[in-house]
């Protein structure tokens, strides 16, 4: 039997709802994932899934229901369940705040789909793992990590107008190398196309951090240190800002980190940050979960905060329009979020040049267990991992034990002294649940007086 296209299923789901206040979203994921540990394959996963979600508005409340069955009766039951959920919410809580689904608008083409990657040839994953294993054998390390590739097609049948369709691909390779004394090093690469991922180069970068130091990790005292962060760590800072500062729902309710601070300088004048879904290195999408087209949005320019992002719900609360950042139809908590953050680079050639100006500091490859503690301050906590080193007299000298960072993301960016010239796409690549690949494009940076509150072991 011919597989049904998401466009066709979305149209039938909207018809099943028979309601001018209904939105039907169909997502089809095809993906492969290969995990490896101790230089051996450990797990392989193949997904071919089609999910239908119907959302219905009743008196300002949104009800949702989902199904994997695309038969006429199943779609009708799904639509009925969404209606009941919306009517129940309206009956129990009275009039709600959701103004209704937006009218469809014209879409722009993007570069986010690669036909070769969409073929999902498992041999390509095998070649990547083999390259990582060979490199590990040459360097005396153990290779661990994940290779994954996927294609996602999304169709949204809006209350009126044509069905919107978007197709994207993504590929990701993460390598964690373990060397002498179980020292670890991390490297990763994310791209729209498999062609842009050099497995051997990723494995080599991880292995270098696990083997390029001759001494045992040093326990460093808590305190404030000048820090050089690779893009992987900067990505976590931007994730914190996405949750705590740019969330339009939190901002409109006065609990966001930029509440009362728009059009003022909030970070270093070297920082220029935008949400740019068509930037060359991003993982783009044509529209958000409510069918609003994606468009570039300047957020911070020369250190001055200009905008937050909105979905339909948060935009109505703020007296503004959606900026195309809904994470789900109806804009439920925790609110909208930017998924294509791009930070412009600076004048330093690379991380080595950033270290050159540091008398004593810390080199951070990436952060782990990053959590927002107080959103109104963009205060977060995280642990360094897989490549934390001491910087002495402008050079990376020896490994240090992983440490806990507790600081404000805005404050860290306000103390930035220099940025690397090259911004790269970074992503954690751990795609649990429905596949939604995203990442940020950012350079490495050097920042002063970053607060470390203890070792990772002590918490």
Written overview of the protein:
This protein is α+β, with helices and mostly antiparallel strands and 459 residues long. The chain has two domains: 6-211, PmbA/TldD superfamily (PmbA/TldD fold, 2-Layer Sandwich); 223-455, no CATH class. The chain is 23% helix and 36% strand. The protein is built from ten helices and 19 strands. It has helices spanning 6-17, 72-93, 115-118, 122-139, 199-211, 231-244, 248-252, 312-318, 351-355, 409-414; strands at 22-37, 40-58, 61-67, 142-157, 163-178, 184-191, 223-229, 273-275, 297-301, 304-305, 341-343, 360-374, 379-392, 395-399, 403-408, 416-419, 424-426, 440-442, 445-455. Strands 3-2-1-4-5-6 form a six-stranded antiparallel β-sheet. Strands 7-12-13-15-19 form a five-stranded mixed β-barrel. Strands 10-9-8-11 form a four-stranded antiparallel β-sheet, with no helix packed on it. Strand 1 (22-37) and strand 2 form a beta hairpin. The radius of gyration is 23 Å and the shape is globular. The chain starts with 5 loop residues before the first helix and ends with a strand.
Strand percent estimate: 35-45%
Basic shape: globular
The helicity comes to: 10-25%
Tally of DSSP helical segments? 10
| N-to-C span | 55 Å
Short account of what is shown:
By secondary structure, the protein is of the alpha+beta class.
List the helices and strands and how they pair.
Elements: H1 6-17, E1 22-37, E2 40-58, E3 61-67, H2 72-93, H3 115-118, H4 122-139, E4 142-157, E5 163-178, E6 184-191, H5 199-211, E7 223-229, H6 231-244, H7 248-252, E8 273-275, E9 297-301, E10 304-305, H8 312-318, E11 341-343, H9 351-355, E12 360-374, E13 379-392, E14 395-399, E15 403-408, H10 409-414, E16 416-419, E17 424-426, E18 440-442, E19 445-455
Parallel strand pairs: 7-12
Antiparallel strand pairs: 1-2, 1-4, 2-3, 4-5, 5-6, 7-19, 8-9, 8-11, 9-10, 12-13, 13-14, 13-15, 15-19, 16-19, 17-18
């Amino acid at each position: 039997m011919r597989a049904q296209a998401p466009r066709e299923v979305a149209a039938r789901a909207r018809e099943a709802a028979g309601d001018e206040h209904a939105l039907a979203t169909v997502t089809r994921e095809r993906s492969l994932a290969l995990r490896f540990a101790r230089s051996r394959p450990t797990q392989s996963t193949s997904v071919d899934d089609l999910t239908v979600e119907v959302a219905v508005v009743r008196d300002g409340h949104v009800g949702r229901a989902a199904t994997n069955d695309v038969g006429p009766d199943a779609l009708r039951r799904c639509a009925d369940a969404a209606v009941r959920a919306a009517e129940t919410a309206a009956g129990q809580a009275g009039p709600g705040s959701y103004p209704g689904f937006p009218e469809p608008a014209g879409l722009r083409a993007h570069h986010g789909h690669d036909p070769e990657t969409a073929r999902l040839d498992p041999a390509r994953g095998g070649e990547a793992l083999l390259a990582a294993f060979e490199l590990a054998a040459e360097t005396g390390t153990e290779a661990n990590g994940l290779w994954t590739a996927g294609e996602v097609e999304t169709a949204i049948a809006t209350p009126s107008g044509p069905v919107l369709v978007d197709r994207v691909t993504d590929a990701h390779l993460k390598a964690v190398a373990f060397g002498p004394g179980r020292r670890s090093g991390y490297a990763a690469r994310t791209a729209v196309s498999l062609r842009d991922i050099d497995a051997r180069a990723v494995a080599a970068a991880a292995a270098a951090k696990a083997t390029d130091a001759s001494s045992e990790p040093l326990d460093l005292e808590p305190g404030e240190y000048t820090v050089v962060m690779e893009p992987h760590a900067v990505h976590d800072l931007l994730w914190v800002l996405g949750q705590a500062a740019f969330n339009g729902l939190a901002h409109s309710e006065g609990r966001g980190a930029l509440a009362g601070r728009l059009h003022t300088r909030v970070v270093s004048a070297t920082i220029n940050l935008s949400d740019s879904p068509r930037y060359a290195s991003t993982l783009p999408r044509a529209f958000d979960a409510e069918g609003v087209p994606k468009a570039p949005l300047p957020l911070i320019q020369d250190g001055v905060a200009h905008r937050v992002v909105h979905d339909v719900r948060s935009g109505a609360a703020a007296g503004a329009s959606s900026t195309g950042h809904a994470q789900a139809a109806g804009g439920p908590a925790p609110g909208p979020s930017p998924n294509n953050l791009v930070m412009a680079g600076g004048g330093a050639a690379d991380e080595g040049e950033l270290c050159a100006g540091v008398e004593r500091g810390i080199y951070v490859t990436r952060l782990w267990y990053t959590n927002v503690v107080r959103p109104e301050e963009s205060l977060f906590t995280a642990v360094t991992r897989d490549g934390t080193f001491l910087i002495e007299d402008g050079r990376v000298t020896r490994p240090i034990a992983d440490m806990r960072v507790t600081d404000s993301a805005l404050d860290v960016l306000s103390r930035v002294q220099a940025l690397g010239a090259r911004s790269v796409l970074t992503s954690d690549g751990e795609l649990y649940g429905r596949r939604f690949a995203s990442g940020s494009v950012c350079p490495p940076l050097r920042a002063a007086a970053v607060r470390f509150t203890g070792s990772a072991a002590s918490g």
